């Protein structure tokens, strides 16, 4: 077989189920205390710093990291359970989600020891928020076209240029960004970019919010003008960011957040049709549940491979491709089925409000964090076509 | 071991190209003989009932391999028949078997003196079978029976993949043996296990379709380059890989769930029904892409693609179509209620 894709049936171990109970109990308390409303999906509006600290206090941030940096040395499968329960509950995770999923692991791998000791424990305590500085006005999917310059100066670098579509930059304490330290070479157009840790909320950085079609202001333009970054904030190899970017993608691309973004409309549809659905509703719900179940099995399988120390880049890309296309279509399929829901359904207004938001959210799902086209290119490469 | 043995036999005696070139079906007898000598058709029958006593997991893996070769002898059917008979501690005879009913819509009845009546449509390989393993409803519950195939009236037919899919009618047929089914074993149990068997075969066929489509795209030249270099073709193949992966994940997960099930609870039902639904969807979408990549050559009877693509489509219909299972799964989800959906999905 040219394409030996593997999705072994991984089951979550017993200790995960105990953890799941704890997470559900914690979230139920938070909901009861009014921290957030699980029926209100636009949680991106909610910045919940206190909630973030309480999640940290539970030991659920940086859970897989070494204890000396504040982590718990628990498994990826345990982290998986925490992530999916938070997502399904519509918990306000934006303050810690990027740091926990992505930025922390990058620092673990590439930051000098004193920076790890300084920052990682604060992530684990839920105190700090991270943003990712990748896209630029003329560099989106084509990451290696980035132009924002990092110029050598005494003791570090001066940054000039603009990052864009940067989620949470307006509340972030740090950003992990790629800047151009050298021009690309003829042999390798990916050469010349370096990954940096950037401390936000300082002179020389201007964050301009950008309105989204959902009505939210969740992403930003970030302008750097002679902004100084000290030498020890370089992450990894100078000019060699391209070597570092790809292996992390498996973590970023295969999690439950890649198919659960609009899940709430399915729950609400089931509530609206009641215990005795007509054939059309039953058939529609059955298909959606079968598709959801299948994606979750694929996603858990990838988590199991990560736990086993593998780098399932192609499998992870498949999960994100199928998962994001599904969560993008979900509100429209639910809308189809909701057309025949009884006028008397008690949650009719909730469902309509949720659909309104989910339909507006849907277009971004196949763009953020690697477009469908980029993912299919990666899969094609894995199949030996490129 | 079971899978390795089977794969060797398939590679030697079930090569799709050789079979496709053989207009007289002379490949069938040697293949069946080799499979029988290796004890594979009775994999799921314990030693003391005449079988080779392989695990459910090994048997499912064997069916996945059979799908990768588009195997067109009643291997899955005989395995299921042997497994069904073993549920009632009925020994399996030698030779080809199939199971009745093969659709959740059909129902066979047993009268007071143990005679069986009713009609079953779409029974795979009924015409080739020497015996039937039968599930029938009597007034005291469900029974399992071994029936001499010559006792049924068979109207022969072909499914969309050109394999036998026949209508079998019983009119007060006396079985060779009949015994009560175990507690909580019913027609739904049989349909779920049959459906998972078909899901694994579909997943195997999709793996093979991905493989031959990738290979073909790396050979075929158009507009002065290999078609694999066109982004449109690459993205189609990436989608085929996704469908193949989804089918494999759903089918192997369901097989694992059944192999380790203590009872057929809602979680196992979710696994098995989802596998059939998702694999059937993948058969349509994935098979469609495989044909698109191949162009006209894949539409010819001399090319092997149709051995996979049409069989995968045909297997959708056996033991309940995806529409059937979607309705049933949807009803189950609705009955449990909205707030019990996520706990069901996240149960393992």
From TrEMBL, chain A:
Which organism's genome codes for this protein? Bradyrhizobium cytisi
Q: Where is the Acyl-CoA oxidase/dehydrogenase middle domain?
A: 131-226
Q: Which InterPro entries match?
A: Acyl-CoA_DH_CS, Acyl-CoA_Oxase/DH_mid-dom, Acyl-CoA_Oxase/DH_mid-dom_sf, AcylCo_DH-like_C, AcylCoA_DH/ox_N, AcylCoA_DH/ox_N_sf, AcylCoA_DH/oxidase_NM_dom_sf, Mycobact_Acyl-CoA_DH
Q: What protein am I looking at?
A: Acyl-CoA dehydrogenase
List GO terms (cellular component aspect): plasma membrane
Q: Does the keyword Cell membrane apply?
A: no
Every copy of the Acyl-CoA dehydrogenase/oxidase N-terminal domain together lies at 14-127
Q: Does the keyword Flavoprotein apply?
A: yes
Q: Which Pfam families match?
A: Acyl-CoA_dh_M (PF02770), Acyl-CoA_dh_N (PF02771)
Q: Which cofactor does it need?
A: FAD
List keywords of the entry alphabetically.
FAD, Flavoprotein, Oxidoreductase
Recorded GO terms, molecular function? acyl-CoA dehydrogenase activity; flavin adenine dinucleotide binding
């Amino acid at each position: 077989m040219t394409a030996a894709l593997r999705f072994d049936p991984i089951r979550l171990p017993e200790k995960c189920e105990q953890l799941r109970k704890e997470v559900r109990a914690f979230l139920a308390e938070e909901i009861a205390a009014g921290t957030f409303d699980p029926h209100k999906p636009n949680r991106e509006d909610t910045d919940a710093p206190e909630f973030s600290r309480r999640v940290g206090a539970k030991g659920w941030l940086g859970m897989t990291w070494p204890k000396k940096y504040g982590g718990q040395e628990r498994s990826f499968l345990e982290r998986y359970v925490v992530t999916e329960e938070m997502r399904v509950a519509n918990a306000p995770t934006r303050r810690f989600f990027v740091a926990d999923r992505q930025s922390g692991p990058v620092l673990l791998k590439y930051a000098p020891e004193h920076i790890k000791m300084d920052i990682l424990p604060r992530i684990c305590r839920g105190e700090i928020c991270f943003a990712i500085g990748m896209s630029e006005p003329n560099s989106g999917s084509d990451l290696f076209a980035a132009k924002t310059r990092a110029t050598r100066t005494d003791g570090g670098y001066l940054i000039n240029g603009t990052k864009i579509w940067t989620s949470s930059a307006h509340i972030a304490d740090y950003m992990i960004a790629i800047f151009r330290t050298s021009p690309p070479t003829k042999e390798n157009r990916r050469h010349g970019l370096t990954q940096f840790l950037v401390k936000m909320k300082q002179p020389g950085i201007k964050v301009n919010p950008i309105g989204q079609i959902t009505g939210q202001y969740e992403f930003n333009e970030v302008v750097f003008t002679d902004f100084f970054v000290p030498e020890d904030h370089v992450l990894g190899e100078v000019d060699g960011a391209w070597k570092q970017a790809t292996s992390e993608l498996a973590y970023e691309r295969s999690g439950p957040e890649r198919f659960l973004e609009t899940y709430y409309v399915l729950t609400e549809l089931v509530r609206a049709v009641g215990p005795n659905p007509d054939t059309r509703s039953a058939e529609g719900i059955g298909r959606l549940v079968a598709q959801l179940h299948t994606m979750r099995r694929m996603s858990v399988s990838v988590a199991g491979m990560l736990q086993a120390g593998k780098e399932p880049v192609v499998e992870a890309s498949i999960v994100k491709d199928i998962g994001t296309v599904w969560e993008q279509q979900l509100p429209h399929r639910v809308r189809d089925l909701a057309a025949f829901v009884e006028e008397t359904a008690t949650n009719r207004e909730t469902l309509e409000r949720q659909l309104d938001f989910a339909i507006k959210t849907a277009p971004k799902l196949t763009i953020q964090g690697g477009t469908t086209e980029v993912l299919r290119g990666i899969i094609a490469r894995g199949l030996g076509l490129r | 071991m079971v899978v390795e043995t089977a794969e060797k036999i398939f590679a030697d005696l079930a090569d799709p190209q050789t079979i496709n070139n053989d207009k007289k079906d002379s490949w069938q007898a040697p293949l069946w003989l080799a499979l029988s000598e290796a004890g594979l058709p009775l994999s799921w029958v314990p030693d003391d009932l005449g079988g080779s006593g392989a695990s459910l997991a090994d048997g499912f893996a064997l069916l996945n391999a059979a799908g990768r070769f588009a195997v067109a002898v009643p291997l899955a059917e005989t395995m299921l028949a042997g497994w069904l008979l073993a549920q009632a501690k009925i020994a399996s005879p030698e030779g080809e078997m199939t199971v009745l009913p093969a659709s959740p819509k059909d129902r066979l009845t047993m009268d007071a003196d143990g005679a069986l009546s009713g009609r079953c449509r779409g029974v795979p390989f009924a015409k080739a079978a020497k015996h039937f393993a039968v599930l029938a409803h009597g007034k005291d519950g469900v029974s399992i029976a071994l029936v001499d195939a010559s006792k049924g009236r068979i109207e022969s037919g072909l499914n969309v993949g050109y394999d036998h899919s026949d209508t079998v009618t019983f009119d007060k047929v006396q079985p060779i043996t009949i015994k009560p089914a175990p507690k909580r074993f019913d027609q739904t149990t049989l349909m779920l296990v049959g459906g998972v068997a078909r899901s694994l075969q579909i997943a195997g066929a999709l793996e093979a379709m991905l493989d031959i489509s990738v290979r073909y795209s790396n050979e075929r030249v158009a507009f002065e380059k290999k078609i694999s270099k066109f982004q449109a073709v690459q993205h189609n193949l990436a989608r085929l890989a996704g469908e193949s992966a989804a089918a494999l994940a759903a089918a192997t997960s369901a097989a694992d769930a059944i192999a380790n099930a203590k009872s057929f609870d809602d979680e196992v039902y979710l696994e098995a029904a989802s596998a059939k639904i998702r694999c059937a969807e993948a058969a349509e979408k994935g098979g469609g892409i495989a044909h698109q990549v191949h162009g006209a050559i894949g539409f010819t009877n001399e090319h092997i693609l149709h051995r996979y693509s049409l069989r995968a489509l045909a297997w959708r219909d056996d033991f309940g179509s995806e529409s059937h299972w979607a309705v049933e799964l949807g009803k189950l989800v609705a009955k449990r209620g909205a707030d019990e959906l996520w706990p069901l999905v996240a149960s393992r």
